[in-house]
Backbone:
């Protein structure tokens, strides 16, 4: 090796060393020697002695951080980006907003829902309810409330607040309500007949009909937040009331807002549950995801929030960036499917739908979509979320097999011919099979529908001879009209809509009208009605299995893939993200578990 | 100009306003979709008919269309523009908030773009064919050809992210939550949006001024002025510029009116809470009261701009007279 090469090598090594030293790595909490993110008494004592003796590695600010951690006192400020203004704390009444309590740091409901885990854990987490019981016939639910909760103005929380909340919704869902007092989401509690309070910390919901999953109604978006009777009893026009104080009962209390851009909440000292480790949360609005990502990279913000987190490609680009962590939540995003309008030709032919269920190349779609796309071959329910509710006999019934698709089409009376060297599919009457596929709605997120169309064209046009006439991009407001007059469309509902057998009522033709698939199966409809009035878990599971069997036979839709959700955060400033993000249960639980790891965040507050 | 003309002008403007409001009312109701159905379907995947019916009844949307129209018209003149379905506050309150922030970036951008466009365009037209003219013309063509969204993003990435000279979005720093809004902080946040809007707008003004100057420069009186021995700068200032400015008056007044609509691209990239994004959200959600309010404001501004143009013309060119029989 000559002199020049040796010099260059040395320079390169120095540069690498310098780069490594300058790169902010994933942080540990100062003073945390065993890496468990808890500063024990011994660790704190060691840090203090070292600081006093001048031999310690911690600065005064870092020592303060360590002490706060040990004493479980809130410390520092976290800046979270929300995409879209509607996620900021509204200056209007929150009670009619979507997603309380899951999207709120100020307000709580009785329970929240956790994500199902591989070990079978999950279920519901009590917030204002410590525990709850269902009657044998699921016609009543008893919630035992926490006894030490207070509203942010110090007023004690009792069962009367829960009863008031229910009655307020009931009274303000009145058809003759004046403008400003009508609550759109008053229908949430429509199945509740009455609410009783046998004592200040017990509340009993009497239901109009069997409600084995009543906590689900209370927990998932839109959830029901409990709000203070002593404030809201005097408010006649909730929809137009400007709530400037935002008195809630959650771990954070409202502090201030700069309209349209910033809001701040501060840890509430009287919170009944586990104190958060973070003292202040500042929520900053970004209208553009790219701007939010730049802000995260630069350190202006610490966390990017949102219903489905970041888009997969952008999350992929962030992986490995210094000081930034990514949590990938299995099936936490949307679940996409090819849906049929079951009363529109040729989708009204069951054998046609069944044949096409073998003509969706999920692997190829997932390759186009990118990281976090999981092929789905179960009947509607997602394996990562539904667990043992999935009927194992229905697994793999939608396997990609073009030859099988051809065979089934021919068996159904279709004729696969050729014209000008290209396949042409003729129906039993000898007409060319042509379909249109409108693009809109939730399946258009990140242009997923366009990717699915591109793959379908390869197989449906290229191999099966089905002509896709047009794929018009339509406005969401007329999407339902388009669905009604086209055979095929796409759907991209949130993953949580695929986590429970009760969600199979998506396919029920109810007295309320058509479902998205125009699917009307008598046996299916009857089983759904039976499911809703069955409380026994074993019987419910059995009904769920039968429902799934009908779905794989009738194929009102072909599941394609589910998308993971990606959450990005500053791993050099806060630690402990993965567990609460993967556990679910809403933002409140998140901020009770993540801990400051950099004294810089204390200088902000 | 006399008072009678002014009265006539106001009367015709009032009529134009009423016609515009009527057309707007009809067009908004011809749009497919409605707020409550779309909102409920996004949550429940279906819209319970009883909830839709109740909502429509509570907000008067089930009344006869003519009754809705006259109620809306009377309320508009009384200053009662209804409540926004999305924000659930009075429409005027929402618009007022956003209008302020829109004007903070659009007013300076429009003024700067107008002044710069006129100055550069006049110079470019006066020096037609010179290296400066060719350079400026090609530069403006280049800027004009860049997609506005991409331009805004590049400005953000270069000046805010890589050079770290400006904030990455919003209109205040987080410290404002404790200390209140600081005008210098707002100004710091406004620089990049203003720069972006300036670049969008200056090209149009430049082209028009350049073309106007080209036509003026070829006039006989310019040749006469040169023959009289006047220097080029004097000819430009005292003869050419004033005459070339006439078409700009209309442009400037209409640009001032148009600026309140905001720029959705700039507001999105820089997370600036303006009227552009508000209009888009109101449209997407079919928030009729809010849309009506925004379009009302737009209509008022355009009408006022047209009246202003009429009033300014005689001041710029005394030969132009409005309202007289001569």
Residues:
């Amino acid at each position: 090796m000559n002199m020049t090469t040796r010099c260059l090598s040395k320079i390169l090594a120095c540069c690498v060393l310098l780069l490594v030293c300058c790169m902010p790595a994933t942080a540990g909490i100062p003073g945390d020697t065993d890496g468990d993110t808890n500063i024990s008494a011994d660790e704190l004592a060691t840090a203090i002695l070292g600081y006093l003796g001048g031999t310690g590695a911690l600065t005064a600010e870092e020592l303060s951080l360590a002490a706060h951690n040990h004493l479980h006192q809130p410390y520092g400020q976290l800046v979270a980006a929300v995409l879209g203004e509607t996620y900021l704390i509204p200056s209007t009444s929150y009670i009619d907003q979507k997603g309380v309590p899951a999207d709120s740091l100020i307000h709580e409901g009785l329970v929240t829902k956790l994500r199902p885990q591989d070990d079978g854990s999950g279920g519901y987490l009590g917030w204002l309810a410590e525990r709850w019981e269902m009657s044998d016939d699921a016609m009543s639910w008893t919630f035992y409330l926490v006894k030490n909760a207070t509203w942010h103005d110090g007023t004690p929380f009792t069962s009367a607040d829960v009863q008031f909340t229910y009655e307020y919704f009931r009274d303000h869902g009145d058809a003759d309500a004046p403008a400003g007092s009508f609550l759109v989401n008053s229908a949430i509690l429509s199945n509740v007949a009455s609410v009783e309070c046998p004592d200040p910390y017990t509340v009993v919901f009497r239901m109009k009909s069997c409600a084995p999953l009543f906590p689900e109604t209370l927990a998932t978006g839109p959830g029901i937040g409990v709000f203070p009777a002593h404030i809201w009893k005097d408010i006649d026009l909730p929809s137009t009331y400007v709530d400037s104080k935002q008195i809630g009962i959650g771990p954070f209390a409202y502090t201030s807002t700069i309209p349209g851009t910033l809001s701040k909440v501060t840890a509430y000292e009287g919170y009944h549950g586990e104190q958060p480790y973070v003292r202040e949360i500042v929520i900053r609005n970004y209208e553009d995801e790219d701007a939010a990502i730049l802000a995260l990279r630069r350190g202006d913000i610490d966390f990017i929030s949102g219903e489905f987190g970041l888009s997969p490609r952008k999350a992929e680009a962030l992986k490995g960036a210094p000081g930034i962590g990514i949590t990938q939540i299995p099936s936490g995003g949307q679940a996409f499917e090819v849906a049929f309008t079951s009363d529109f030709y040729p989708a009204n032919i069951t054998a046609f739908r069944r044949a096409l269920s073998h003509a969706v190349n999920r692997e190829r779609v997932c390759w186009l979509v990118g990281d976090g796309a999981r092929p789905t071959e179960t009947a509607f329910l997602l394996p990562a979320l539904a667990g043992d509710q999935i009927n194992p006999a229905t697994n793999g019934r939608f396997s990609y097999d073009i030859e099988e698709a051809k065979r089934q089409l021919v068996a159904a009376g279709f004729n696969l011919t050729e014209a000008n060297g290209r396949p042409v599919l003729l129906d039993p009457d000898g007409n060319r099979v042509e379909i249109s596929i409108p693009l809109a709605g939730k399946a258009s997120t990140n242009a997923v529908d366009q990717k699915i169309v591109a793959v379908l064209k390869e197989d449906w046009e290229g191999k099966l001879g089905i002509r896709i006439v047009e794929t018009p991009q339509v406005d969401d407001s007329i999407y339902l009209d388009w669905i009604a007059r086209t055979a095929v469309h796409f759907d991209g509902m949130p993953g949580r809509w695929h986590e429970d057998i009760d969600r199979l009522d998506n396919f029920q033709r109810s007295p309320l009208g058509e479902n998205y698939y125009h699917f009307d199966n008598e046996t299916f409809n009857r089983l759904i009605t039976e499911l809703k009035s069955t409380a026994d878990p074993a019987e419910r599971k059995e009904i769920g299995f039968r429902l799934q069997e009908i779905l794989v036979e009738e194929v009102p839709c072909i599941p394609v893939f589910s998308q993971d959700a990606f959450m990005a955060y500053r791993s050099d400033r806060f630690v402990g993200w993965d567990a609460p993000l993967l556990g679910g249960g809403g933002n409140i639980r998140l901020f009770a578990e993540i801990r400051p790891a950099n004294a810089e965040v204390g200088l902000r507050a | 100009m006399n008072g009678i003309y002014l009265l006539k002008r106001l009367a015709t403007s009032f009529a134009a306003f009423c016609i515009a409001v009527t057309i707007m009312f009809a067009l908004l109701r011809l749009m497919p979709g409605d707020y409550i159905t779309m909102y409920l379907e996004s949550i429940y995947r279906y819209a319970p008919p009883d909830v839709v019916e109740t909502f429509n009844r509570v907000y008067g949307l089930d009344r006869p269309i003519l009754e809705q129209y006259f109620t809306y018209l009377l309320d508009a003149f009384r200053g009662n523009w209804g409540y926004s379905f999305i924000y659930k506050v009075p429409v005027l309150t929402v618009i007022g908030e956003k209008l302020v922030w829109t004007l903070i970036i659009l007013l300076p951008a429009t003024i700067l773009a107008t002044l710069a466009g006129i100055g550069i365009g006049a110079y470019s037209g006066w020096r037609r064919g010179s290296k400066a003219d060719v350079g400026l013309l090609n530069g403006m063509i280049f800027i004009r050809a860049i997609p506005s969204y991409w331009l805004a993003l590049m400005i953000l990435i270069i000046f805010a992210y890589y050079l770290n000279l400006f904030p990455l979005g919003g209109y205040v720093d987080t410290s404002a939550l404790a200390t209140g809004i600081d005008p210098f902080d707002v100004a710091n946040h406004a620089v990049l949006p203003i720069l972006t809007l300036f670049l969008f707008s200056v090209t149009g003004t430049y082209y028009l001024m350049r073309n106007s100057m080209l036509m003026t420069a070829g006039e006989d009186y310019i040749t006469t002025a040169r023959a009289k021995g006047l220097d080029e700068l004097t000819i430009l200032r005292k003869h050419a510029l004033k005459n070339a400015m006439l078409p700009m008056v209309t442009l400037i007044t209409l640009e001032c009116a148009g600026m309140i609509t905001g720029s959705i691209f700039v507001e999105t990239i820089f997370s600036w809470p303006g009227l552009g994004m508000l209009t888009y959200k109101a449209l997407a959600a079919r928030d009729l009261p809010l849309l009506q309010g925004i379009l009302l404001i737009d209509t008022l501004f355009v009408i006022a701009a047209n009246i202003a143009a009429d009033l300014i013309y005689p001041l710029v060119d005394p030969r132009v007279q409005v309202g007289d029989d001569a």
User: Anything to note?
Assistant: The mean pLDDT of chain B is 88. Chain B touches chain A through 58 residues (CB under 8 Å). Residues 91-126 of chain B form the longest helix (36 residues).
